[in-house]
Fold this protein.
Amino acid sequence: MKLNRSMLALLCTGLLAAAVYAEDAPAGGEKKEAPKTEKKEKPKVVRLTQPWSLITSLTLEQKEKLNKIHTDALEETKKIKEKEEADSMAVLTPEQKDELEKAMEKQKAEAKEKNKKEKPTTKPAD
């Protein structure tokens, strides 16, 4: 009995898949082209940091320039921090590097534990 149901389910699945495939296939071997729709350009949104975001009269061009200045400054800051770390690590001995790594792992674990304690573990009563 179970074998008959399984065979029937398999047959129905195959017929359904064939029907879906036939529906999707273009007739006569012709390629279906998707209808072309005109895309409306959304107005560009530039988010600024403070204090620049407080100025309501900025033009889009000014916002873009300020945003580029900020992005470039962040990149430069990142490069400076990376160079500082590399230069500082070059000064340390291998033992000091190990000590630093262990201290940083301990610090991360403590921060993680602190975050666990601060977050409520149970849901408030409704």
